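Table S2 (continued). Query chain:
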Amino acid sequence: MNANNIITLFLSLLFLSSCASTNRHNPANDSAVQTDLSSNIEKVTTVPIQPRSSWNAQKARAYKKHQPVRITIHHEGGKVLLPTDDPKVRLKNIQTWCMGKDRNWTDIPYHYLIAPDGTVFQGRDPLTVGETNTDYDPTGHLLISFLGNYNEQKLDEKLLNTLTQLTAQFCQQYNISPETIATHQDHCQHTNCPGEHIYAYFKNGEIKNRVKEILND
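Corresponding output:
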């Protein structure tokens, strides 16, 4: 092999080595790509949710699983609950009664509950079916309930914002169409739940429209 061939071979090997180095997997590059991708994902602002431990929830009994495909709004319909009242006491009382001899349910029946001051609490596991004393099947329904009685008390702007933001959050989280958002009485003729002062905002379409606006921003 003459000198020119040796030089050519050397340069070829040097070029191949350089290519291998350039294409070598670099974890740092992966991190950069992941950061760029995540920055392009639009997310609805999340509403803070207080855990079950915050209201000293009893451990739930096992119950059937489901995947939420629609969102249904309730009120618990007991006594009026004022913003100055302690919602944790009401939550605990509801769960105790529902799991007791009168109902013998597996847990508090709703997945999320909204207090009159706008605080949101975790109820039952959203991947388990809710429970009801009326004639509709809550399988597939993600149940959001207001604490109190909204035939007598009214929603203020803060509560409207909490409801629409929370509902939009779950539409995005579970890939639920906002067209499915409805109330208990839309699925059952034998109740006026969630109360006339909440239902009015569904009857005029305001809740759905607000949720759509949030999701489309």
